[in-house]
Write a structure and sequence with these properties.
Shape: elongated
Oligomer: single chain
Largest sheet: 2 strands, antiparallel
Number of strands: 4
Strand content: under 5%
Helix content: 55-70%
Strand order of the largest sheet: 1-2
Radius of gyration: 26 Å
Distance between the termini: 43 Å
Length: 291
């Protein structure tokens, strides 16, 4: 869509104006813009940073939830971000009108909007930021203890505090700055809808969530997946070799439990200190266990 915006711009067609989200009282507003605006961007840096964050955190959340649930969450939060942004724009219009028009009431808002059509058409929102911020929130709620290095902080910060920091910064920016061309309320709106959706899912039986939802770390989620995969393979091997195995079921299960605990210890070491911290023996055990 970014490439299409550039191509059509060469022939005088502004796709950002057609597909960007206009204020709902503006003449150019169309309901489909609530979906299309999140695929449009104002410039290359705007596109790059949104897609970089989407790649970093979106890959993890898609692997955690599955593609269908992830896509539903992403699109829904993008729409929610657009709704919150338009609500904030409505508040801005009301405040501007009440400051400049004596005796202004809420009933006059539509008359003011009709007389300010050209100005309101300029209130256009583009970008995936609202949906991306919702993905960031989902990562923080799903893996709250995961430590992250964030420039320029000299020490790692847990994902839950990273998300809280972003919320505070966006809230402060939304309230303290004006005319900075950044849709801060859209960012907050995406996070709000994401929080409500995740809270709703968690309150449902099963909730559509995997066993890794609600805590732990990404490495722990990987570990559980590894245990499930290797557990099934071990069971298959047990069935194939049942007639030839000389040890008792009790001894076999004890040895299997011991091997799993050793793999758990190695995976925890990888999570804390990295793969390079493993000894050659530990790397061999991890490789053999993966097979």
């Amino acid at each position: 869509m970014f490439a299409a915006t550039w191509v059509f711009g060469r022939i005088g067609i502004d796709l950002n104006n057609a597909l960007g989200l206009h204020f709902f009282l503006a003449p150019d507003f169309q309901i489909y813009q609530l979906f299309t605006y999140m695929f449009m961007h104002a410039g290359f840096s705007h596109l790059f940073f949104n897609m970089f964050a989407l790649w970093m955190f979106g890959c993890i959340m898609e692997n955690t939830w599955g593609p269908r649930k992830y896509l539903f969450y992403y699109i829904s939060c993008g729409v929610g971000a657009g709704l919150v942004q338009m609500l904030a724009q409505f508040g801005s219009l009301y405040l501007l009108a009440s400051e400049q028009i004596p005796g202004f009431t809420m009933g006059d808002i539509f008359l003011v909007a009709d007389n300010s059509a050209s100005l309101l058409n300029m209130w256009t929102t583009v970008g995936a930021s609202g949906a991306v911020y919702a993905i960031l929130l989902a990562f923080g709620m799903t893996y709250p203890e995961e430590r992250m290095f964030i420039f320029p902080l000299p020490v790692p910060i847990k994902a839950k505090w990273f998300v809280c920091l972003y919320i505070v910064v966006e809230l402060f920016s939304a309230l303290a700055t004006t005319n900075d061309s950044v849709a801060h309320f859209a960012h907050l709106g995406g996070m709000l809808f994401g929080w409500l959706m995740i809270r709703y899912w968690r309150n449902q039986s099963g909730g559509g969530y995997g066993s890794g939802m609600g805590g732990g770390s990404f490495f722990e989620h990987m570990k559980r997946n590894w245990e499930q995969r290797t557990g099934r393979k071990a069971d298959d091997m047990n069935r194939r070799d049942n007639g030839n195995r000389s040890e008792s079921d009790w001894d076999y299960n004890a040895h299997r439990k011991q091997r799993e605990e050793e793999i758990d210890r190695i995976l925890d070491k990888v999570r804390k200190s990295g793969y390079d911290s493993l000894t050659e023996e530990e790397k061999r055990k991890l490789f053999d266990g993966g097979k």
